[in-house]
Amino acid sequence: MIKKILIASILGSSLFVLAQSVPKAVLLEVGADTATVVATLEGKKWQPTTDSMPESAKPLFTQKNAIKLFTDVGLVGTASLEGQFAEGRCGSEAKITTNTKLSRQIYALVAPWNITPRKVQRLPLNNAAYTKVMAAELAARGIKAPVQMTQILKVDLDGDKSDEIILVAQRPAMTANFELVDSGYALKAHDYALTIVRKLTPSGVKTFVLREASIKTDFDSKKYSEGNGEPPYRFAQWVNGIADFDGDGKMEVLVNSILWEGYGFEVNQWNGKSFAKLFEWGCA
Ligand SMILES: [Ca+2]
Ligand SMILES: [Ca+2]
């Protein structure tokens, strides 16, 4: 069978085109009853989709409960596709049905592998040791603001039998359900958002930065209302998904962030030495 496909593809256009045309997995952004296609895994590369749902990806959705819903704590349920994909606000949209109660926008993978091979644990935010770690990170950046931890997650991302610790802190803070407080505008000097991973390496436990932002001065509302200057920043960050995006048994980290009036995410992957960006997506 494989031989036949190979011959057909050589006789046809090319092997490369064949590999590109059949996605291995699809990433969806999921709301209460709608899913939007945001990226497809083509060969070994995740490609953010622009507008239309790739025809070749449709067979991936035919099975009931093919859509695997995940959050910062890994797999939380499944969903099934209902009806056809049509153009939506941020990409191809379709109706879905699920028994899982969704209280915010989350993400889902349609992929044949186990997307969360290891458990993720949410730790209490008042952890003294991790508050100290975060305080040191803020101090190292000259950020004079208190630690406002919004997430502490414990998970063995890469399966080396040692847990990584993911810490997210920010001011303004976010609610436990990742809603913006006071619209999330960074107005005060030293407002910040910082997402880091603590990981055991051959040279000890090290800190890796997934995302960071801060402002040095107060927002000048007078200047802005007079028509000068930039609007205030919004740089809220939250880890909204931990899952294995490519089926290699190692889990990646999806970090959402607010960008001006829009929002987006980056998927970060441990490459053996550091966390690198696998791909990103955004919608205004
Ligand atoms: Ca590990
Ligand atoms: Ca992986």
Could you characterize the architecture of this molecule?
This protein is mainly beta. The protein folds into two domains: 2-110, no CATH class; 121-283, no CATH class. It is built from four helices and 18 strands. It has helices at residues 2-11, 15-21, 128-140, 221-225; strands spanning 25-30, 34-42, 45-48, 67-71, 74-87, 92-98, 106-110, 121-122, 149-155, 164-171, 185-186, 192-201, 204-214, 233-234, 237-243, 252-259, 262-270, 275-283. A hairpin with a 2-residue loop joins strand 16 (252-259) and strand 17 (262-270). The N and C termini lie far apart (45 Å). Residues 1-20 have low confidence and may be disordered. The structure holds calcium ion (2 copies). One calcium ion is lined by residues 244-246, 248, 250, 252.
Properties at a glance:
284 residues; mainly beta; 6-stranded antiparallel beta barrel; disordered N terminus; binds calcium ion
Rg measurement, Å: 21 Å
* SSE string: HHEEEEEEEEHEEEEEHEEEEE
**Class from helix and strand fractions:** mainly beta
Question: Helix coverage percent of residues?
Answer: 10-25%
* Beta-strand residue fraction: 35-45%
How is the largest sheet built, in terms of strand order?
1-2-6-5-4-7
> What's the overall geometry?
globular
Ends apart, CA distance between termini: 45 Å
Give the number of helices: 4
